[in-house]
Amino acid sequence: MTVGVLALQGAFREHEEMLHRMGVATRQVRLPRDLAEVDRLIIPGGESTTIGKLLVMYELLTPLRERILAGMPVWGTCAGAILMARRIVDGRPDQPALNVMDIEARRNAFGSQLDSFEAEVDVTDIDHPFHTVFIRAPILEKPGEQCRVLATLPDGRIVAARQAHMLATSFHPELTNDSSIHELFLSF
Ligand code: GLN
């Protein structure tokens, strides 16, 4: 199994390092020919408007969307989750996106007052509280019927969801030492 990590912008190295510690082979995806070589893909955190523009520039947006719709497992962290959502709330009007997952993403939902924070969160199918790191994070909203909520903050706001082979997290598991969400994704 080769796990692709979209390497256009953002925290892709941290995902690669986590996967290497787990003994999993990775490949950086920048071009359509890289995408053809991978079995699954992580879309990292970063800046969703920039990653979206680069997806268009590198002619990856359409082939990536088609692979996901054909069933390739995909996991978006933070900006990656925003790119996967069916609708982006508070996005840029011209922001390119994949629109593959039946959920909305509200960008920068915690405002500038609370740019970054950490919390222990219960995640479905993970047997211990997960240490979450949020950085200018989105909140996930209005999940469709096919979408299963995996984690919420104590106030009920959704921070992780799964729809079949698609996983979205508002937070950054690659910035912790806990590989359990990476393991969850590899089980898809
Ligand atoms: N605020 C960023 C965006 O809109 C996401 C931040 C992140 O990925 N850490 O894309």
Helix content: 10-25%
Q: Assign the CATH architecture.
A: 3-Layer(aba) Sandwich
Q: Tell me about the biggest sheet? A: 7 strands, mixed
Number of strands: 12
Bound molecules: glutamine
| Class from secondary-structure proportions | alpha/beta
Distance between the termini: 12 Å
Sum up the overall morphology in one term. globular
List the uncertain runs.
Answer: none
Strand order of the largest sheet: 2-1-3-4-12-11-10
Could you tell me the mean pLDDT?
Answer: 97
> What fraction of the residues are assigned to beta strands by DSSP?
25-35%
Characterization of the model:
This protein has 188 residues and is α/β, with parallel strands linked by helices. It has a single domain (2-186), classed as Rossmann fold (3-Layer(aba) Sandwich). It has 6 helices and 12 strands. The protein has helices at 12-21, 32-35, 48-57, 61-69, 79-84, 180-186; strands at 2-6, 25-29, 40-43, 74-77, 85-89, 101-106, 116-121, 130-135, 139-141, 148-152, 158-163, 166-169. It has a 7-stranded mixed β-sheet with strand order 2-1-3-4-12-11-10. Strands 5-6-9 form a 3-stranded mixed β-sheet. A two-stranded antiparallel sheet has the order 7-8. Strand 10 and strand 11 form a beta hairpin. The longest helix has 10 residues, at 12-21. It is globular and about 45 Å long. The termini are close together. The model has no long low-confidence stretch (mean pLDDT 97). The structure holds glutamine. Glutamine binds at residues 45-48, 78-79, 82, 107-108, 135-136. Glutamine (GLN) binds at residues 45-48, 78-79, 82, 107-108, 135-136.
